[in-house]
Design goal:
It comes from Acidipropionibacterium acidipropionici (strain ATCC 4875 / DSM 20272 / JCM 6432 / NBRC 12425 / NCIMB 8070 / 4) (Propionibacterium acidipropionici). The chain is α+β, with helices and mostly antiparallel strands and 167 residues long. It has one domain: Roll (Pnp Oxidase, Chain A). It contains 3 helices and 12 strands; from the N terminus they run αβββββαβαββββββ. The strands form 3 sheets. It has a 7-stranded antiparallel β-sheet with strand order 3-2-6-9-10-5-4, sandwiched between helices. It has a 3-stranded antiparallel β-sheet with strand order 1-11-12. It starts with 15 loop residues before the first helix and ends with a strand.
Amino acid sequence: MSIHSANPFADPINEPARQLRGRLGARVTVWAAGDLDGDAAGLTVSSMMVVPGDPWRVTGLVNVDSDLAEVIAGTRRVTVTLLDGPDEEISDTFSGALPSLGGPFRRGDWLDSPWGPHLAGRTWAGAQIEETRPLGWLNQVTGALREVGITDAAAPLHHIRGRYRVL
């Protein structure tokens, strides 16, 4: 055992790199995999991008210890649902900040697809996982887009500097 002068439980909110990331802002999404009747898992993900090519791809950063990482490893498929203004509670539920009796998929109207569950009435995409690799403390998950459902988002939900913003 060693004794350090720094508090290991101190809030890392003042880390300059964390402040930089918080100022970037990002669209709030839920990544999900599995089946609603069985092993479905989901996670709020804001660190992601859509990459042009043939095929187009989506890549995102997923917590290595999340249930979603485990289900993705088994199914090799994922959905990405873009959240809108009224979906703050859904985001908080899938991030683990807000409990949901009966599980996170009880909050909102979720539909099964060949790629995993997606939220009804929202823009979403289904992807076939091509690669998962460690990146920092997370997994970078990359998949080829196989299906995309577009809706008109009147109020897209974003996260910046620790708060939700509707644009």
